[in-house]
Amino acid sequence: MPAQTKADVVVIGAGIVGAMSALHLQQQGRSVVILDRTGPAAGASAGNAGILAFPEIIPIPSPGVMFKAPKWLLDPLGPLSIRPAYALKIAPWLWHFWRASSRKVFEQGIVTQTAMMELAAAEMARIRAIPELATFFDNTGTLDLYDSEESFNAAAHDWREKEKAGFEFRRVNRKEIEELQPGLAPHFRHAMYSVSGVQINDPKEFTRAVCAQAEAAGAALRTADVTDIAATGDGATITLANGETIEAGTVVLAGGAWSKKLATRLGDRVPLDTERGYNTTLPTQSFDLKRQLYFNDHAFVVTPLAQGIRVGGAVELGGLDLAPNYNRSKNLLAKAGRFLPELDTRGGTEWMGFRPSLPDCLPVIGYSKASRSVVYAFGHGHLGLTQSASTGKLVSDLVAGRATGISLAPFRPDRFN
Questions:
Q1: Under 8 Å CB-to-CB from 91, ≥6 apart: which residues?
Q2: What are the tens digits of pLDDT across the range 190-208?
Q3: Do residues 301 and 332 make contact, with C-beta atoms less than 8 angstroms apart?
Q4: What average pLDDT does the structure give for the chain?
Q5: Hey, which residues does 230 pair with through a beta bridge?
Q6: What global pTM score does this model have?
Q7: How far is Cα 371 from Cα 353, in angstroms, rounded to an integer?
Q8: If DSSP codes are grouped into helix, strand and coil, which group holds residue 190?
Q9: d(CA 167, CA 88)
Q10: β-pairing, 80-82 with 308-317?
Q11: C-alpha distances in angstroms, 341 versus 89, 155, 221, 312, 344?
Q12: CA separation for the pair 60, 109 (Å, rounded)
């Protein structure tokens, strides 16, 4: 007979969203078991850029974006790429993406992300106050760079929206750019500088440290592959690959890019897919990097981490199964070498990870249609680290049956139906 155990709350996924959810729940007196196929920070949480991107309130699906997409897609190493072998599978996702780019949905998305980011900043400040986690935070500032005055002016709407939302920044000229970050190519003469930009200096170890805080508060962490979830009258039954079952009072599904299959088992058809992210981490001595650099016309970033300089970004839609195309990371590194002429591009470590993404660039946070005993928290795309603490707070509110600090209607699992 397979083993059978009981648990109060089971969190599926030990990435940063699952870790934060477990920590919030454990701090509020719940008894939590965390399950992950390979252990803490084994996926996207290990290789992200470490940016706490609170000002990023502008949805990627925007009016006119579909006119730009064909140009991007013609370049296999451009900012957006679809692997030919995946084109048919991604078609429904792209249809929802197109619907989300309408003016009405776009403007509502700004409102939704603004509220979420306000909560994210407040909750992350609370996390930062934990002594064991405080050392992972660095105030580096953020420099948003543009190739030309034309592209800088084209982004004016986005900066106005950020200003309306209360974010502070200032336009800087070439002289100030050179003072803020020496060594940039001379054509960068137009930029915005945000002094409040914050960097997590080691995203992988930060996620592990959050898990450790949850464990210190009483949570149990297990390496286990979940193959099924079934709602019951007073909770849910989890089935593991080894045949073991766990009877849980509540289940939190925070499995990132692997959440879709389990949500489908519960009757929720969520158009979750993956943005395959690529990066290269160079040795620290490769360049004297002062702060986060956004190369906005090329959709990639360069960030300072404890273990080195990370160059990454862009989007490849290719699912979970196709082999990595590391030409993308090489292309990003070559661009970084042109934009930072003194950058030593040798000796880097390449990485590819799966960002769990929904077509409207909002996560799924809410109850499963099968039962209020199952709570979803996945699909954060580029903003998983940024919105992890706020998601953990919202999850704890949902589990407790409390009113949430922001409306969760835009995040509901059935919004694409």
A1: none
A2: 999 999 999 999 999 999 9
A3: no
A4: 94
A5: 237
A6: 0.95
A7: 31
A8: strand
A9: 40
A10: parallel
A11: 40, 26, 45, 17, 8
A12: 10
